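stuck on this:

***
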Amino acid sequence: WKKPFFIASPSNYLANCAKKSSLMKNWKIKVIPYPINNKTWAPINQNFARDMFNLPKEKTLILFGAIGGSKEKRKGADLLLEALDKLSKKNEIKNKIEIELIIFGQEKPKSPYKFNFPIHYTGHISDDRSLRVLYSASDLLVLPSRQEGLGQVGCEAQACGTPVVSFNIGGLPDVIDHLKTGYLAKPFDTESLAEGILWILKDKDRYKKICQRSIQRAELLWSPKNISKLYLELYEQALYEYVNK
């Protein structure tokens, strides 16, 4: 292959993968995230959102979701359940924070998990409006993925003011500003994941600041206006080099 392309990568992780490849290592690569429409993805009243999905208002709700829900091993539902089991045994949680789990992308299985926390299954979510309501209804989104090129649901959740906890892998460091808009746990360490969830939830004043920073960061980094400028710069650079060969 003789002719290189300009590459637009949605994350630094994928950009580095391209740089390590035999074919693309000398190609020009620019990191441009996917845009987030801040009108589509924005917070709504949490009590109203919980009413929409018939969720309890007085509980702390942790959200997890994927196509296929907990059946998709790559998305790490088993790691989340293990982390939540450890979390339930921590003194800061016992009799202080009542946690329930929401899983979207999956109907309630015939043989549900026997678990310390109640689990709500929403089934498949097919439209942005319902997903926005679900983000707003939740106190926290957890992305326990084993592999993740970017983690777009993490971007959407933060735009809705919902902090995100994940492992420090793949494209997720681009999504989460550690200790500012969420928490990056040690890869595949369920104790570290549990600690991250606890860190987000245990301080109410800090939690409010994290939610606000999440919204601000989404507007700053992922607005269509900002992303379109980055693409325009890329096209102009490519055109300039083509004309001046």
Notes: Residues 224-243 form the longest helix (20 residues). DSSP finds nine helices and eight strands in the chain. The chain has a mean pLDDT of 93.
